[in-house]
Amino acid sequence: MMTQLKPPILSSSHLDTSIKFKTPSYAFYRLRFHPTRLTLWSFLFLFFLLLFFLCSPPSAGGKRRSLQTTRLPSNWEVKARNSARPQSKTDFTVLVTGAAGFVGTHVAIALKNRGDGVVGLDNFNNYYETGLKKARKTLLDRRGVYIIEADINDAALLTKLFEIVHFTHVMHLAAQAGVRYAMHNPASYIHSNVNGFVTLLEASKNANPQPSIVWASSSSVYGLNSKVPFSEKDTTDQPASLYAATKKAGEEIAHTYNHIYGLSITGLRFFTVYGPWGRPDMAYYFFTKDILRRKEIKIFEGADHATVARDFTYIDDVVKGCLAALDTAKKSTGSGGKKRGTAQLRIYNLGNTSPVPVVKLVSILEKLLKVKAKKRVLQMPRNGDVLFTHANISLARKELGYKPSTDLETGLKKFVKWYLSYYGGKKKSAW
Ligand SMILES: O=C(O)[C@H]1O[C@H](OP(=O)(O)OP(=O)(O)OC[C@H]2O[C@@H](n3ccc(=O)[nH]c3=O)[C@H](O)[C@@H]2O)[C@H](O)[C@@H](O)[C@@H]1O
Fold first, then answer.
1. Are 63 and 69 in contact (CB under 8 A)?
2. In this predicted model, what pLDDT tens digit does every residue of 349-404 receive, in sequence order?
3. What is the Cα–Cα distance from 400 to 326, expressed in whole angstroms?
């Protein structure tokens, strides 16, 4: 075997023949006449390629899906068409991305309840317990909302979906959420909040008709701003986390697609949304879990014991804001990728206008759960968190009729009731 890898020793007779037949170079011999070495290099190349793929960070939460590989049940198109059929005069057919997520589930149900056609899309990633996402899916199934299990980065699937269903609106809620997790898995934020958003906008601008888009931005875009309450007119160029930076990037990307392709786009800056069927990665949710388990909870404070506060906003209020944004959205002006006129571009704060300190949140939970929390107060680590949020909602009130009406204590009461029922062994629906 080894002799095959060596170049042949050229005798003088060999040199003679080289006059008639051009003598291959040493390098050429190595490549052309040594298949074993070639195989070895090919094997090594494939091995490193595989290694690179396996070591690359997973997409949001860990599930790896590449383009056009989503395996869907054979009847998915029929199910999507049925689910998309409106039963009201509004004639709305809405694609809800992130439909198995917290806000997505609530919005999809509200739309279905009023007779809109609704199709959900969700990748069911394991950023937090997938069992909760499946339970939300069951709720939607019961109401006749079909969720396609796929990633918003699957361009081929989106193109197909927009062909078979003519969506009037897209309610885009799929995202990699969470402020602090961005330090652990930065790539997942780029994957979902930047790449995924662009993939969705590409499919939307190519669709005929183009849908109107309403999507979830975040209060975190106000970052380190100190002027309160936060207004849509304020500059937002000091994000404190990569999460905030990707949401801010989304707002700029939205501007571009509106400008070039005539897509009607409305961004909603949500302020720490909480409530039943919420997100287990959020403080109110895991504080509840830890208080019940008698586990210590960490309460952050700023420098010099500065209070950390949030403008906690109850889910039902946010859902009303989402529906109002859809109802007031003007049509996109383009079609088939071409702009035909100026289109609507809007941004609204959906907050509660009354920030509550995190220590107060904890005392409300203690009262509702009838358990004293084991608290440890510590200085906020530099993890992307900001000290406080406070929404000015006058624009949303004026243009959307948005009027939040649930204070934190009332909202947490509903959350705790749901939590105890959901985790109380029966795991039955709290709706
Ligand atoms: O409004 C928003 O834009 C954002 O609201 C939340 O982010 P956040 O407000 O940081 O909500 P939590 O993670 O639930 O934290 C709430 C408060 O509890 C504090 N906290 C959190 C965790 C902890 O262990 N201790 C603690 O005191 C945080 O500093 C914060 O002030 C969501 O997680 C984001 O996805 C969303 O976009």
1. no
2. 999 999 999 999 999 999 999 999 999 999 999 999 999 999 999 999 999 999 99
3. 9
Measured from the Cα of 308, ligand 1's closest atom is 31
- With beta carbons less than 8 A apart as the criterion, state whether 402 and 324 touch: yes
66 is a domain residue: yes
Task: Tell me whether 0.90 is exceeded by the ipTM.
Answer: yes
- Residue 359, domain member (yes or no): no
Structural domains of the chain, count: 1
Q: Which two tokens stand for residue 204?
A: 């939307």
Within a domain: 298: no
The reply to whether ligand 1 has any atom less than 6 angstroms from the CB of 310 is yes
Report CA torsion sign: 299, 300, 305, 308.
negative
Instruction: Please give the Cα distance from 286 to 419 (Å, whole number).
Output: 11
Q: How far is CA 77 from CA 104, 119, 163, 319, in A?
A: 21, 11, 10, 28
Question: How far from 271 is each of 24, 73, 170, 241, CA to CA, in Å?
Answer: 71, 37, 21, 15
Domain harbouring 131, CATH code: 3.40.50.720
> Is 96 a pocket residue for ligand 1 (Cβ < 6 Å)?
no
Query: Does a structural domain hold residue 420?
Result: no
CB of 220 shorter than 6 A to ligand 1: yes
Structure tokens at 192: 């979902």
243 is catalytic: yes
Quote the ligand 1 centre to 178 CA distance (angstroms): 8
**What residue numbers bound the domain in which 113 lies?**
62-271+313-351+389-405
> What pTM value is reported for the model?
0.85
Q: Which of 222, 243, 274, 402 is catalytic?
A: 243
How many angstroms separate the CA atoms of 431 and 425, rounded?
Answer: 16
- Would you say the CB of residue 325 lies under 6 angstroms from ligand 1? no
Is residue 326 in contact with ligand 1, taking CB distance under 6 Å? no
> How far does residue 135's CA lie from ligand 1's centre (Å)?
24
Name which residue sits closest to atom 18 of ligand 1, judged by CA: 283
